[in-house]
Every structure is written in structure tokens, then in C-alpha cells.
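dumping this here so i dont lose it
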């Protein structure tokens, strides 16, 4: 009886062994596939060769794909002559002003983007808002006027540098692109503190030993990298990349000459009221109850502060010489800045950078204009 059933039993045992082998092989392939997918996921999110979520805005802001020809990623945007464009230069309080404009959004948002209570003449006058994603549009715009947010160059540059510092960004939970997350720590390893950055400055020349494309971040030479970052040669540092020189000399259309109004962060609401009055507003200009910048992080204790030595401040101020020159030109062009208001900004610049002799600088600028 047992002999008659032995082949059947052997066949069943063999079948069970085959099933276990197939199950083991299947599990092995599952593990291999999971490992491959995991590696692919890691590479995509950590290696900078892949385009990140900021690539669209970056290409649009540059107006170029890096090969020398324009390739905007957003459709053309028409502008009208009898209108103004609001130019939001980074770290100048422009985010606060944008909330008071019916068209205070980038071109990613079509049409009026806000319903404004107590709407001002400026809000009705501003047709388009220009910040990092839209700066590339400025040279071809037809606006008869530009309203520009500005701030003392020393304060703006320091704020810009510290804003994206990885340690600070982590504290106030700044949303960053994959490129910022990857390259930020590499760059800031060269200048972990403001004092470190300032000590890397080498005079007032904007020529830096940084023979790389603006999209690259190379930290082999910290002195060259710091120079390039401050003078707008490294695209990752967008607020420093779009500095006063960049906006004034390469972005704002000057022919025919346009009307210029400025909103200084230090005197934001005084300037806001004054510009509205100059443009014809007769009723009261209502300003927000909270006079602070909506994105102000001054109430947060940040690990990397503005602490800087006298020597470091002097070196940084000298390096900012050309930025101060462009800043003062904007103030001179501005219709809403009279001699009294100009003196206020000049006094602040003198306090921030007493070694620059900004008054002599302004005299020289006026002679050359």
C-alpha cells in the first residue's frame, strides 16, 4: 500500500519545495525592486542634477535657459502704458505692500488676485507685480511708472544673507527647494556666521575669482564664492542676485525715461501715504493696524544673528560700494523723495557705513548724472 503511494508523496514533496523556492525567489525580487526604487528616490531628491520645484521660477526670472537664448516658462504678459508696475526687491518689505495691491501677485496668478478694502490710488494704478519669478519681464514692459520697494543696502544685504541660512531657515520653517536644501549647507560652510562672510570681502571690486555659471555653487574657494554671492553672481541667493545694480542697470526700461517712486522699508507707511497723495488720492490712506512686515521674523530667536565686528562691518560696507551707488541713484530718481527725505536715508546709510563717506559719494553721483 505504502509502495503504491510513494510516487505520489514524492511528487507532493517536490511540489512543495518548488512552491517554497518560487516564494523565496519572489520575495528576493521584491526586496531588490524596493532597493532600486529607494535608490532612485534618494537620487532624485538629493542629487542636484535633477530639476527641482524652483526651476520654473528660476528659468523665468533669468529669462534664459543658461545657453544664451530666452526660453520663458510662462506666457507673455502684456502691460499698458498708463499704468505702474510694482517692483518688489527682496528683503525690503515688498511682501507687506503686495497685500495692499489688487494685482499684488506674480504672473502665476491670472488677473486681480485680491479684493482690497479701502483700496488706494496706488492699488488701482499698479497693473502688474514684479518679484523674482517676473523680473525677466521688466525690460519689455510699457508702464509709464514704477513703484519700487527699497531698503538701506547694508541692512538689506545682511537680511538677505541670513534669511536662507540653513540654521535660520530651519527655525522659522522656511520652505526651500531641493536645490537650496542641497547647496545651501555647502555654501554656508564657507561663512557660517555673518562675521565670517564679512572677513572674506576683498575691497569694492565686483570682479570675483568665481569662473562658474550663475546656476553653480562651488565652494572650493570661499573668498571667491562670498564675493560672487554678494555681487549677484550666484543665482541660488536670489535676493542678492537681484540686487539694486541688477534691477537698475539691466531690468528697468529707461528709454523713454519712466517715472520712479520708492517705498523705503524704514519709512514704509509715510512713503505709502505720500505716493498715494502724489498720484491723486484725496481721502485718507488707511494703513494696516499691524505696522510690521507680515514676514518679519524679528520676534524669533535665530541661531545665526547679525553680530559683526567693527572691522567686519567696514569690510562689508566697502564691498557694498556699488550697491550704495545704485541705491542712491534710485533715491535721486524718485519723485516722492525730497531733500528732507533724502537726508533721512543718507543719515541711516552714514550710520550703517561711516567708513564709506556716503555724502561725498552722493555728490559725485549728482555730478555725473
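and the seq i came up w/
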Amino acid at each position: 500500500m505504502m509502495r503504491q503511494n510513494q510516487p505520489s508523496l514524492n511528487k507532493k514533496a517536490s511540489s512543495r519545495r518548488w512552491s517554497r523556492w518560487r516564494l523565496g525567489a519572489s520575495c528576493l525580487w521584491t526586496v531588490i525592486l524596493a532597493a532600486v526604487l529607494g535608490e532612485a528616490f534618494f537620487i532624485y531628491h538629493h542629487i542636484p542634477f535633477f530639476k527641482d520645484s524652483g526651476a520654473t521660477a528660476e528659468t523665468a526670472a533669468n529669462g534664459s535657459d543658461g545657453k544664451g537664448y530666452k526660453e520663458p516658462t510662462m506666457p507673455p504678459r502684456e502691460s499698458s502704458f498708463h499704468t505702474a508696475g510694482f517692483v518688489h526687491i527682496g528683503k525690503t518689505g515688498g511682501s507687506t505692500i503686495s497685500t495692499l495691491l489688487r494685482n499684488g501677485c506674480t504672473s502665476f496668478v491670472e488677473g486681480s488676485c485680491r479684493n482690497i478694502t479701502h483700496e488706494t490710488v496706488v492699488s488701482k494704478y499698479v497693473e502688474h507685480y514684479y518679484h523674482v519669478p517676473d523680473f525677466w519681464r521688466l525690460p519689455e514692459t510699457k508702464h509709464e511708472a514704477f513703484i519700487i520697494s527699497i531698503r538701506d543696502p547694508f541692512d538689506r544685504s545682511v537680511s538677505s544673507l541670513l534669511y536662507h541660512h540653513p540654521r535660520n531657515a530651519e527655525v522659522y520653517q522656511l520652505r526651500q527647494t531641493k536645490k537650496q536644501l542641497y547647496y545651501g549647507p555647502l555654501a554656508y560652510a564657507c561663512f557660517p556666521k555673518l562675521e565670517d562672510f564679512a572677513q572674506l570681502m576683498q575691497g569694492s571690486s565686483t570682479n570675483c575669482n568665481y569662473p562658474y555659471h550663475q546656476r553653480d555653487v562651488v565652494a572650493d574657494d570661499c573668498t571667491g564664492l562670498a564675493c560672487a554671492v554678494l555681487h549677484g553672481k550666484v543665482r541660488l541667493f536670489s535676493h542678492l542676485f537681484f540686487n539694486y545694480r541688477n534691477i537698475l542697470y539691466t531690468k528697468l526700461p529707461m528709454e523713454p525715461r519712466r517715472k520712479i517712486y520708492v517705498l523705503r522699508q524704514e519709512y514704509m507707511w509715510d512713503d505709502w501715504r505720500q505716493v498715494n497723495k502724489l498720484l491723486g488720492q484725496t481721502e485718507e490712506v488707511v494703513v494696516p493696524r499691524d505696522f510690521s512686515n507680515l514676514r518679519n521674523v524679528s520676534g524669533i530667536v535665530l541661531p545665526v544673528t547679525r553680530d559683526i565686528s567693527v572691522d567686519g562691518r567696514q569690510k562689508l560696507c566697502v564691498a557694498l560700494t556699488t550697491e550704495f551707488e545704485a541705491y542712491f541713484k534710485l533715491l535721486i530718481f524718485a519723485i516722492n523723495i525730497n531733500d528732507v527725505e533724502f537726508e533721512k536715508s543718507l543719515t541711516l546709510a552714514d550710520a550703517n557705513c561711516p567708513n564709506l563717506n556716503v555724502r561725498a559719494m552722493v555728490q559725485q553721483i549728482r555730478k555725473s548724472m
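Residues 11 and 298 are 78 Å apart (CA to CA).
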